[in-house]
Amino acid sequence: MQGDGIADLIGRVALGDRRAFVALYNQTGPKLLSICLRILKDRAEAEEALQEVYISIWQRAGSFSAASGAPSVWLAAIARNRAIDMLRARKPIADELDSAYDLADSAPDPEKQTVTKDEGRRIDTCMEELEADRAVAVKRAYVEGLSYQELADQFGVPLNTMRTWLRRSLLKLRECMER
Question: Which residue ranges does the record assign to the RNA polymerase sigma factor 70 region 4 type domain (predicted)?
Fold first, then answer.
């Protein structure tokens, strides 16, 4: 970066000269990108920082004074400060690890667990009111998933009798649960 040429370009940018801005970018972009990249250690972030650096240069070119220092130092300071600001804006790694443990628990909450246990107790109590063989048939049909025919064969009763047992047992269970 040549001092006098860069200072002249910055002065023209301060007047709103877009061609001077493009020329300034072409001459200083690689150096300022390397500053951002060295600090951020991520090319995508460094390129984003560089874009913001040039926005800042466009907006603040009028505040540059050649008497106060070299233009390359002024540009490098803007790039360095912007990259550091982006680095500070990053979440600390510890925050990322802590947030990883904030996963939703798929288990029911304690209230739902209590309601489910209470309903389970009520069902058990109502099942005790059924005749023993009817209660076993209901459990095997609706918990174990046995078919009517399999249950009829196990209990040695006709198929329609098993259907009647299960239907009447379910009606008794409903009445008991509604109390």
Answer: 121-173
